[in-house]
Amino acid sequence: MGLDLVAIQKHLESERAQLLARAIPPPELAKGDEADLAATAQAREQSRWLENDQKVRLAQIDRVLARLAAGQYGICATCGKPIPSERLEAKPLAILCITCQSQSEKKKK
Ligand SMILES: [Zn+2]
């Protein structure tokens, strides 16, 4: 495999550190008039969405780092077949081969 696992690990660890640095609780929101309240509610929604997104991303990174540590990076977590390196280059967080990925996406729907 032509993958640079050390580079991938470093990249993931730095992204993980960035996510953790950003995952600070939203600042205490100031009291205001109606318009401010509406804007505040929107901002709160947005930050909640961001938090969830960050959590999902962090969980994905942790999962991939664990697989790297276990020497299982690039091996499909479902069928155990190697994931093509072109796929990993495009999607470094992929832990499933294309076949298993599309099957799990079908199940979700
Ligand atoms: Zn698979």
Question: Can you put this structure into words, describing what you see?
Answer:
There is one protein chain. This protein is mainly α. The chain has a single domain, classed as Up-down Bundle (Four Helix Bundle (Hemerythrin (Met), subunit A)). The protein is 65% helix and 0% strand. The protein contains four helices and no strands. The radius of gyration is 19 Å and the shape is elongated. The chain binds zinc ion. Zinc ion binds next to α4.
Quick tags:
binds zinc ion; 109 residues; mainly alpha; 4 helices; 0% strand; Four Helix Bundle (Hemerythrin (Met), subunit A)
Give the name of the CATH architecture: Up-down Bundle
The main β sheet shows up as: none
Number of DSSP strands?
0
Globally, the shape reads elongated
Distance between the termini: 33 Å
